[in-house]
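Renewal narrative, Specific Aim 1. Our central claim is that a sequence can be written position by position from structural information alone. The example that follows is taken directly from our test logs and has not been curated for this report. It begins with the structure tokens describing the chain, in the order in which they were read.
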């Protein structure tokens, strides 16, 4: 388990270093756009270009929330008896 944690930390550190090196490159910021972003452009992009990925992410998040709610249930006998007001036999 410690090995997986170590690999995860090293991977996150490597990803952060790559992200910093890419964002600090001069080529990324060299060409600036003259047009300003608008809310109509954002809505058009979200509803036309990104509709399917947003739907997929929404379904994935809903499934993860249902899974989390299922996993935190406590079904030990004493808790079930207390919750439903029954007495132990």
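The sequence written for that structure reads:
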């Amino acid at each position: 388990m410690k090995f997986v944690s170590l690999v995860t930390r090293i991977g996150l550190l490597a990803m952060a270093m790559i992200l910093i090196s890419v964002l600090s490159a001069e080529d990324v910021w060299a060409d600036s756009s003259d047009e300003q972003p608008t809310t109509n452009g954002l809505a058009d992009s979200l509803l036309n270009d990104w509709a399917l990925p947003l739907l997929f992410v929404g379904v994935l998040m809903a499934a993860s929330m249902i899974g989390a709610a299922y996993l935190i249930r406590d079904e030990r006998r004493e808790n079930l008896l207390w919750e439903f007001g029954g007495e132990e036999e």
